[in-house]
Amino acid sequence: MTSQQRQQELLSAAALTTFKLNGQFLELAEHLARPAGLTATYWQVLGAVIGEPLTVSAIAREMGITRQAVQRTADLLAERGLVNYQDNPAHRRAKLVAITPEGRAANQSIGPHHAHHAKELSDVAGADQLADAVAALRKLSEALDALDLSDR
User: Fold this and answer.
1) CATH code at 40-109
2) Ranges for the HTH marR-type domain (predicted)?
């Protein structure tokens, strides 16, 4: 096997494994969010603004999803009273999405179930191995961010 073939094989294996992991994490997120009356997508957007209000674009960049998908989700969360829109001093037209006390309560209600599954995963995978996997995934994400995806 040539070096180029090995590189291509590794890229494919990384992508396929990541796709499978994405599906598994989405299934787990739905499982965790459902008792709180949320979906995985709702929980994802709430989690993005738990620390500070962000614009829809900033949430989309952080989560790796489209601005339009975040806007639809934020609008639905606002209808349910879980977030609200605030004026943005840095940009007149781009409102900030802020979590409400109801949204914070819904997010916090996931905590005990989340802790249970976090312990299970750590017990099965090993805490040090899980930390190493997270570090490797972050490094892989940074490397993908650095790729030149322009049409050549």
Assistant:
1) 1.10.10.10
2) 7-142
